[in-house]
Amino acid sequence: MASSLSRQIWVDGQKAKDSNMNNQADLEALFAEHGYSDFKWIKPEDIVVSQWVRMKCTFGCGNYGSNASCPPNVPSVSECRQFFNEYRTAAIFHFEKKVDQPEDRHSWSRGVNEELLKLERAVFFKGYAKAFLLFMDSCYLCDDCPGLRKKCKNPRSARPSPESMAVDVFSTVRPYGYPLQVLSEYSQTMNRYAFLLIE
Ligand code: SF4
Questions:
Q1: Cα–Cα distance measured from residue 171 to residue 14, given in angstroms and rounded to the nearest whole number
Q2: For a pocket test of ligand 1, which of 64, 67, 164 has the largest count of ligand atoms closer than 8 A to its C-beta?
Q3: Ligand 1 pocket by C-beta < 6 Å: which residues?
Q4: Which of ligand 1's atoms lies nearest the C-alpha of 70?
Q5: What does each C-alpha distance from 96 to 7, 48, 162 come to in angstroms?
Q6: CB of 117 closer than 8 Å to CB of 132
Q7: Measured between alpha carbons, how far is 26 from 22 in angstroms, rounded to an integer?
Q8: Sorting pLDDT into bands at 50, 70 and 90, what band is 99?
Q9: How far is the CA of 153 from the centre of ligand 1 (A)?
Q10: Which ligand 1 atom lies nearest to the CA of residue 154?
């Protein structure tokens, strides 16, 4: 026979589970209101953070140092891991796009990220004070980025991308059945992912 202590623990656990499910249902309704249906819930502890991602930003990216929301204007890799560990709920949002010209992707990602900011704000006002968005691409909110965090022209809206936060997006999204391949040409379909850290 279960002790009163273990019964209490089970009851508390069940309440927490029910409350989580209610929270998720409310959030899913909010996502739908904002037009998002292609998303999956993820435990932040399952977000894969890797040093190699930071190395790829630091060596090999032609834009290194030119975006105020990308390395080196972001936390260290271990601080990124710590940041994700402070959350227990997050959602991945999937976006797919083919562009005619390589430069078209910036205006597309700007539009998508501006809409995502509205969702982050709505989630925040639902009482989720920790809500924090990772853009689905580097921050292209401004035509001209000064490349320095303290000189950011839109600091209230700027957010890092998952890659800037050292997220191995390939390893993180694949277990959820999401597609992601290395692309050899700009004309190929892009699959992009934004992360919304919630609570
Ligand atoms: S908001 Fe503008 S200035 Fe700030 S990081 Fe984004 S593009 Fe750069």
A1: 31
A2: 67
A3: 67-69, 139-142, 145-146, 152-154, 157-158
A4: 5
A5: 47, 21, 16
A6: no
A7: 6
A8: confident
A9: 6
A10: 1
pLDDT tens, position by position, 157-185: 999 999 999 999 999 999 999 988 777 77
Rounded Cα–Cα distance for residues 65 and 54 (Å): 13
Rounded distance from Cα 70 to ligand 1 centre (Å): 10
What is this structure's pTM? Answer: 0.89
Centroid of ligand 1 to alpha carbon of 154 (angstroms): 6
Whole-angstrom CA distances from 104 to 2, 4, 180, 182, 186 are 63, 63, 20, 19, 10
Ligand 1 atom closest to Cα of 140? Answer: 7
Task: Characterise 189 by phi-psi region: left (phi > 0), alpha (psi -120 to 50), beta (else).
Answer: beta
Question: Which amino acid appears at position 24 of this protein?
Answer: Q
Q: Which protein residue's CA is at the shortest distance from atom 4 of ligand 1?
A: 152
Question: Is residue 139 within 8 Å of residue 165, measured between CB atoms?
Answer: no
CA nearest ligand 1 atom 2, residue: 142
Q: What ranges do the domains of the chain cover? A: 8-176+183-197
CB-CB contact of 159 with 194 (8 Å): no
CB 191 within 8 A of CB 84: no
